[in-house]
Amino acid sequence: MDYADRPVYNVSDSVPPSVLVLSILQHFFVLAVYMTYPVIITRALGGGEDLSTFLISATLIGSGIATLLQAFRYTGCGYIFPMVPNSSYLPASMLAATAGGLPLLYGMMIVSGFLEMILSRLTRYFRLLFPGEVVGVVMFMLGLAIIPFSFPLFFGSGESGPLDPAATAVGIITLGSMILLGIQQKKIFRFYAVLIGILIGLVSSVLFGVLTPADIESAGSAPLFSLPNPIGIVSYSFDIGLLVPFAIGMLCVMLKSAGNIALLDEYTGETGRGNLRRGILSEGFGAALCSAIGGIGIGSSASNTGLIPGTGIASRNIGLGLGLFLIICGFLPAIGWFFHIMPEPIMGAVVIYAIAFIMLGGVQSISSRVLDNRRTFVVILPIMIGVSSVMCPNLYTALPETIQLFFASPLTSGAIFVVILGLLFKIGLPTHTSIRFGKHPEIDVSRLLLDCGRLWTMDKTQMFQIIHHIQALIRAMPEGMHPEELTITLKNSTGTLSAELTVPGPVDETAMKTAGHYPAFVTVAAAADKTIVRSRYIMI
């Protein structure tokens, strides 16, 4: 990802107390919109305000614990990685809630969480399943999936009705303020663009009558502190018939998190440390724990991830503070009321601002790859299928109910099909190729690596870096020595590419290992009449 600059405060950096507090508040306001999901499930069950408050409180506590685990390097991905109610679980959760109430929802979510924990052990094969262009499609579809939810909020259209002029004005003022502040040169405006935008939005909500004094007074009637009471609410049941829809939701959540972690890996430079494996494991544990204490299905937040490159603040201290703050909020009933009175256009503006960075990251991830005709269809067809689920909502209604869940949102259908097509179009691809050098070995290297780039969908920048490194190896050979053959091997399961140069004579091992500037593992093996120079590259 080619952002204009790198984090101002990177993962391991300490941040001033003022930056810490205000950044926590920004992330809290961004994830606030997801706390409407417990309210949606409450309405599906026909529950009242007490049930809604309990679900929000339990979900806040579970989300806080999971966010804390993610922020630690040894228990999670080590980033600001808030765990929030996830839209991918919403269709299956609604189905479970209406079929068997909250006990069935809790039981199925616990199973889903443990299933994700098991799959986290297979992250070494994720590059085979989720190469850069696949992750890019998932990131792009994340934005599309949020649009049907965020834009009605932004325009105050309620249940997808016509837009409300006053609410639209508030949304435009809020979003416009965030954008104008976010593009300023002074870092203080960029850091707090979302928070200042929300404050401006609240003022405009009062001026336009979107937020009334009665709304504010109703929040004041809530008690200051209360322990969530699970008695009579929390119990567990299981239905094997619901395993498929929950498994689909879990896979989408996992793909979403893989994309979010990939974005943060690239933005912060914190790669190669098992971030993905620990992040997925912690997410699965967090989802199971949250449901066990009475919350709903949680996963990573694309909006909060997009906020990190948007502000330039990536310090894990923000994640630790946010986790503690969420836990505390779980014992404050007034927080639940806050979500009821916060004007919808403000929440919509916050989400739109954040997902812009996610969708841009997806486009950049796709465009960074060398795509042949096969991979072009792997990228385009899932996007078309995902968009069709939004633009043609009645197209799939004749399918069985379980299969319809694949098309419940563009994220679900797009993510599933991009993985399936990605694997299908790998069938028959060779993983080994070689070339006998002619009179111009450096040109031959370029030709072979360009072919490999198209064949194996390599990152464009890395492909040229490898070309330049192998050319540097050739130039470092003794004067007059002409390499005989170059062999390139791709190991998809481990995500490595190996280059093997066959040289007709001895070479200087030190010169080989110091040639070029690309970080590669180089070995030299001498035989009776030739030398084999091997270099290995970790694929991105």
List the helices and strands and how they pair.
Layout: H1 17-31, H2 36-45, H3 49-71, E1 83-85, H4 90-119, H5 126-129, H6 132-155, H7 165-182, H8 187-191, H9 193-207, H10 213-219, H11 243-268, H12 275-292, E2 298-300, H13 302-311, H14 316-329, H15 333-341, H16 344-367, H17 373-391, H18 401-404, H19 410-424, E3 432-436, H20 441-456, H21 460-475, E4 485-491, E5 496-503, H22 509-514, E6 521-526, E7 531-538
Antiparallel strand pairs: 1-2, 3-4, 4-5, 5-7, 6-7
N/C terminus separation = 12 Å
Secondary-structure element pattern, one letter each: HHHEHHHHHHHHHEHHHHHHHEHHEEHEE
Structural class: alpha+beta
Please provide the count of β strands: 7
Q: Could you give the order of strands across the largest sheet?
A: 3-4-5-7-6
Q: Which sheet architecture does the biggest sheet show?
A: 5 strands, antiparallel
Unreliably modeled segments: none
Note the overall shape: elongated
- Strand proportion, as a percent range, falls in 5-15%
Number of continuous helical runs? 22
Mean pLDDT: 86
Tell me roughly what share of residues is in helical segments. 55-70%
Q: Output the radius of gyration.
A: 26 Å
Keywords: Membrane, Transmembrane, Transmembrane helix, Transport
Membrane topology: Multi-pass membrane protein
Main location: membrane
Family: Belongs to the nucleobase:cation symporter-2 (NCS2) (TC 2.A.40) family.
